[in-house]
Amino acid sequence: MVFVPEDRIEQIMKSKRCFNTLQILRALAFLGIFFFHTTLLPDVFSRWSITVFLMLSGFLNAVHGCDKDIDCNPGASWKYAQRKIGRIYPLHLVMLVIAFVLYAYSVKDAIRDVLWERLPIAIGKLASNALLISDWGPKSGWWYNIFSEYNIVSWYLSLSLLLFFLTPLFLRIMHRFYGSEKAKAFMLPRVLLISALIYALTIVINIMLVNHYKDSSMLYIYESPLSRVGDYLIAMQAGYFYGQKGKKQKYQHMALPVIIVVMALAVSIFLIYVGIPRNNVIPADYSWIMNSGFYFTIPSVILIYHLVTLEGINALKLNDSRTIDMITKPLLVIASLSQYAFLIHVPAISLMHGILRRIGDVNIWLWSLISFVLTVLLSVVVDRCKKR
């Protein structure tokens, strides 16, 4: 990557806090979201990406917290969440202002006569966005005017803040449930049972949301904490098990995790294919399933767990071959920038679309390329500012 120094790339690859295989998965998830927002990819790719992002967070938080006695009182939980969000919160505020300005400019003619009527709503919406509570409120009716986002992807940051606040409590419960010597002896069956119960409950919650909100249920099942906490919790079960047992697990045949990874990828690709509307596989009445908090859960958690087990396999080391190196280094850089690029990319895409539209017809490929380069450049600038 021409924008990132070589020593920074090496630092990324050698980081003990990161699994390179998971970083590559993170990069692919970001690309899925980015090119969905430029309309190059259908929406099912963004559904897969959000599931992967959520499950990576849950898995890694459990891996790094499974052997720690983390205080779960409200004050300590808030500090834990602040540490997780604090690094990108200033960028969130900057992008919120930029997104608001772009939105206001785009609708200035339409709202000129009702400006003073709309002003209190705009202030309320800005407040819910700035406080990162926009994802916690109703997703339909009048209140959605307040609990929605100017930078449309920041709902994920709002969701993450809530999940991070609850993570110390989740870890404390898992310590109680898995911590005894007897529990550790039968840990895998317990993890599988608890994960199955969470998965079943998530399906029930999604069905209830669809039945209650009907045509307006999409945002509830796609963004609502009630729907998405299941992905996070199931990934935490896998991460906790890996932290306690998986690190010591030795495969007699290293081909086994490779086969499992390939199968999990194949199932994910199949679900993506099934979820593309033009393929006409899922009937219209059941298309909500693709947006739900359970559609990609099982293959994603299997993929994440077994990608981690591949980290130490000599045959798959990421710097063993020049060809692999050429592919993985850019992906690792994208992954390291993704926390910034995620917040930057939609305003960047909107800005470039507005500029290109003034010039003439918007070529989707050119628009996507320029927007991507701009997003990466701005993310590098933010990353370098953070390093100072």
UniProtKB/TrEMBL annotation:
InterPro entries listed in its UniProt record: Acyl_transf_3_dom, Acyltransferase_3
Flavoprotein among keywords: no
Membrane as UniProt keyword: yes
Record-linked Pfam families: Acyl_transf_3 (PF01757)
Membrane-spanning residues: 18-36, 48-67, 88-106, 152-171, 191-213, 225-243, 255-276, 288-310, 331-352, 364-382
GO CC annotation, single: membrane
Keywords: Acyltransferase, Membrane, Transferase, Transmembrane, Transmembrane helix
GO function terms (MF aspect): acyltransferase activity, transferring groups other than amino-acyl groups
One of the protein's GO biological processes: polysaccharide biosynthetic process
UniProt domain Acyltransferase: residue ranges: 22-382
Protein name, UniProt field: Acyltransferase
Gene source species: Butyrivibrio proteoclasticus (strain ATCC 51982 / DSM 14932 / B316)
